[in-house]
Amino acid sequence: MSELHDAIIIGAGPAGLTAGIYLMRAGIETLLLEKALAGGMPVNTDRVENYPGFPEGISGRELMDRFAAHAKTFGLPIKEFSEVSGVVHDGKTFIVTTTEGEYRSLGIIITAGTEPVKMGIPGEDRLVGRGISYCATCDGMFFRNMDVAVIGGGDSAIEEGLSLAHIVRKVYVIHRRDALRAQKILRDRAFRNEKMEFLWNKRPVEIGGTDQVEYITVEDTKTGEHGRVDVSGVFVYVGYRAKTAFLGDLVDRDASGFIITDENLGSKTKGLYAAGDVRKKMLRQISTAVGDGALAAVNLERYLLEIKS
């Protein structure tokens, strides 16, 4: 029989690390499981400027390293490269199956974050890793002095486009509408950047190339006319979906897989909470993930006191 923990957290992003800090400080024996390296999505952010306490800004990697270091000062064990494939509940405990084996707990917090949505167009699957990327911070260096395209008009697309502009020769921002959805401060910076060119009312319909990306075909959303944009790289930011398939029917979800919670961040299964980007909510930011992590941890603590009393 696997060892029984008081609590297991799945996902070591800002919500998971915050929850771990709160639980460990409360004296609750906790294990944090992470499928890759601790830090979550923010580690791919070149510069974080809206997290309180850092008026000069801070890199996403450094901020998350500080989160992890803080959690470790309270003794939180973080098992990296331990991907969860399934969670079941036997009525008393949660059984978590991972690549490293099984773990059991009395309560659980899901902070598994999101994954990028693919465009689903010809050439995308074939050329992933051969010029198509979903992370400019990770792969931008491979396109130094080349022309690239960024797909999308939200915060992520424009933030990454600005990051790429420091490295590449030209950034084509391809957006299906005639206005960006990104925050005004990001829009203003992008419009001032001479390396960024905006292709409005365009949607990608094909990515072409023999062994590497050579071009992207776009369609005008108003006229239906097709055009070709020659690029060496394509960075895709058309949305995110929640990573929740491993939970089976333990939770209710919306159409994109985001977990539906109550005001205390509880799910339909008692003892299972969701925090951060993985749950259905309006705003997904580091600051909101931190708040979620704290709230989920406090409510899980109360749940554990209730079942142990």
List the helices and strands and how they pair.
Blueprint: E1 4-10, H1 14-25, E2 30-33, H2 60-73, E3 78-79, E4 84-89, E5 94-98, E6 101-110, E7 114-116, H3 124-127, E8 132-133, H4 136-139, E9 147-151, H5 155-165, E10 170-174, H6 184-192, E11 196-199, E12 202-208, E13 215-220, E14 226-230, E15 233-236, E16 240-242, E17 272-274, H7 286-308
Parallel strand pairs: 1-2, 1-6, 2-3, 6-17, 8-15, 9-10, 9-15, 10-11
Antiparallel strand pairs: 4-5, 5-6, 7-16, 12-13, 13-14
Describe the structure concisely:
With 309 residues, the chain is α/β, with parallel strands linked by helices. Helix content is 25%, strand content 26%.
Please provide a written account of the structure:
The chain has 309 residues and is α/β, with parallel strands linked by helices. It has helices spanning 14-25, 60-73, 124-127, 136-139, 155-165, 184-192, 286-308; strands at 4-10, 30-33, 78-79, 84-89, 94-98, 101-110, 114-116, 132-133, 147-151, 170-174, 196-199, 202-208, 215-220, 226-230, 233-236, 240-242, 272-274. It folds into 2 domains: 4-115 and 240-308, FAD/NAD(P)-binding domain; 118-236, FAD/NAD(P)-binding domain. Helix 1 (14-25) runs parallel beside helix 7 and helix 5 runs parallel beside helix 6. The longest helix is centred in the C-terminal third of the chain and has 23 residues, at 286-308. It is elongated, with a radius of gyration of 21 Å. The model has no long low-confidence stretch (mean pLDDT 95).
